[in-house]
Amino acid sequence: MHPAFSVIFLTTLIGAGQGLFLGLFGAESLSLLGVLPPPGSDFLALGSALALVFLVLGLVASFFHLGRPERAWRTATKWRTSWLSREVIVLPAFMGVVFLYGAAHAFGFNPPLGTLAGDVPILPTVVLGAIGALLAIVLYVTTAMIYACIKFLQEWHSPLTVVNYTVLGAANGFTLAAAYAAWAGVPLVAFLATVAIVLTLLGLATRIASLVRNARIKSKSTVQTAIGVKHPKIQQKSQGFMGGSFNTREFFHHMSATFLRGMKWIFLLGAFAIPALLLLIALVTRVDPVNVLIAAFVIQYLGLVAERWFFFAQANHPQNIYYQSVA
Amino acid sequence: MTQLALVIDLNVCVGCHACVTSCKEWNTSGDAGPLVDQNPYDADPTGTFFNRVQSFEVGEYPNTETVHFPKSCLHCEEPPCVPVCPTGASYKRESDGIVLVDYDKCIGCKYCSWACPYGVREVDTESKVMTKCTLCVDRIYNEELPEWDRKPACVRACPTNARLYGDIHDPESVVSKAIREAGGYQLMPEWGTKPANHYLPRRKTQLTIREDEVERADNPLKIDSQLPKPGQEEPSLDDVTSW
């Protein structure tokens, strides 16, 4: 497929925003359980605002993908059948909950709504945070399923697609959360950076698993099934036109195999190896973690942009069988 | 249930592209607006087409055959492009099975084109919406046209009658008979899309002529002839004029 930067930025930016929110709410939950020190309302409010910035930027990027963005409101109508429609519903819902969660913290609106058994208060921020965390996960799934549900794009049609979108987005978001905690001077850096390392290494494993899977894919469609002639030796002599068309532009990356291989190594280093190393440095050495963690986030984000580019470029659309020879 | 469709006879198609130009002409002149081209008379011309004719060489030189292969929307009975559409702009008509795009609802996200394994949907660069073969829905029901003319433009244009048009759910229709009797098949059956359009395979046309069929069977001079047999050119009983 031809990688569209609008979609690359949409998926990577909202992935980081979702992960950041999961990091914030994870820290708040664990602090309420007494495992972690309390992060403070200001930290959570500003963090929610930061997550919203990423989500809004992603949403803005997505509009550049549309030919008729003024009709975008229509996309919410076919949620019964279309994963894209589902994503379009879940994304603003998630943004709304993040906004309310941040606002509740910013204005200190947190009266107990009731108590659970054992006198545990039900706090509005926890309720909102739990809904938000659930929506963040659902959003990862809906985003990934847009690609995973197309069965003849065999590189995408796998549970690994969903796993990778979730784990890679969450890893990047936790790295961002760790950088943010370091910058804000909140004693959550160790927790967030540790989770970020675990998610980054887990993501490395699942992404390599999908690379291995995709390297072994045997295309179900062949030129024989495409035109219905059984002969083993068939060659296209003409695609029917000499100029380009939508078919020759939209479904191929137009780059060399070497470029593609290069991109693979760039994202393996940029999205996984280097950020994991930087996170480790921030955790175990005595250097000032702020710049190291910010660098880890930026490098990992750019690495994930490369990863997403490769994700699209690697998918081989069966329609390309029909466009092998100009004349 | 009606399912209108084309049946394309690869044994007859000569690859003249008449259906391509006829399709373009009709569909660029319709109410839905033009199918625009960019640089039509310049370097790198490009544009929107609903129908293409491609050519494939089958076999190994010198034993090759050229297969001309027209390709347009197959109006699948299980169209994978329809459920993925987030707005409902891409739909399949209940009444006749034609897969259409509502140009007023389409947001141009291209997702349906990704979800079509055949590559028959094209974004029009000017109207910024997805376009595709409509099976000339504005011809086949057009009461301003005489009844014999209410067929898709590509079908009307084909000089060799390689394109048949009709209801594949009606067992007595010309297309159903062709599919049944000439081995009609579907493209990429592996994806379960059940294309409505079918293709008829290439057929070997052979005529075996034995030597005695060349000779006149009712030739009494030769049947009862004395030996040696008279030559082929010599007069015989029924060649009355040669007497």
Molecular structure report:
The complex is a heterodimer of chains A (327) and B (243). Chain A has ten helices and three strands; from the N terminus they run αααββααααβααα. Chain A has helices at residues 5-32, 41-63, 83-106, 124-148, 159-184, 189-215, 223-227, 246-250, 257-284, 289-314, and strands at residues 115-116, 120-121, 234-238. Chain A has a two-stranded antiparallel ribbon. Chain A is elongated. The relative contact order of chain A is 0.14. The mean pLDDT of chain A is 95. Chain B is 16% helix and 20% strand. Chain B folds into two domains: 4-200, Alpha-Beta Plaits (2-Layer Sandwich), CATH 3.30.70; 208-243, no CATH class. In chain B, β8 and β9 (130-131) form a beta hairpin. A three-stranded mixed β-sheet of chain B has the order 10-1-11, covered by helices on one side. A two-stranded antiparallel ribbon of chain B has the order 2-3. Chain B is elongated and about 90 Å long. Chain B has helices spanning 18-28, 111-114, 137-140, 153-157, 174-181, 211-214, 220-223; strands spanning 4-9, 37-38, 46-47, 51-60, 63-72, 90-92, 99-101, 122-123, 130-131, 163-167, 198-200. The model of chain B has no long low-confidence stretch (mean pLDDT 90). At the A-B interface, α3, α7, β3 and α8 of A face β3, β4, β5, α2 and β8 of B. β3 of chain A pairs antiparallel with β4 (51-60) of chain B, so a sheet runs across the interface.
Question: Which keywords apply here?
Answer:
heterodimer, A: 327 residues, mainly alpha, Formate dehydrogenase/DMSO reductase fold, two-stranded antiparallel ribbon, 10 helices, B: alpha+beta, Alpha-Beta Plaits, 2 domains, 3-stranded mixed sheet, two-stranded antiparallel sheet, 7 helices, 11 strands
Described by strand count, sense and barrel closure, the largest sheet of chain B is: 3 strands, mixed
Strand order of the largest sheet of chain A: 1-2
Based on CA inertia axes, which overall geometry of chain A fits? elongated
Distance from N terminus to C terminus of chain A (CA atoms, Å) equals 22 Å
Q: Please tell me how large the radius of gyration of chain B is.
A: 25 Å
CATH fold-type name of the largest domain in chain B = Alpha-Beta Plaits
Quote the beta fraction of chain B: 15-25%
Return the string of H and E elements of chain B. Answer: EHEEEEEEHEEHHEHEHH
Q: State the helicity of chain A in percent bands.
A: 55-70%
Instruction: Give the name of the CATH architecture of the largest domain in chain B.
Output: 2-Layer Sandwich
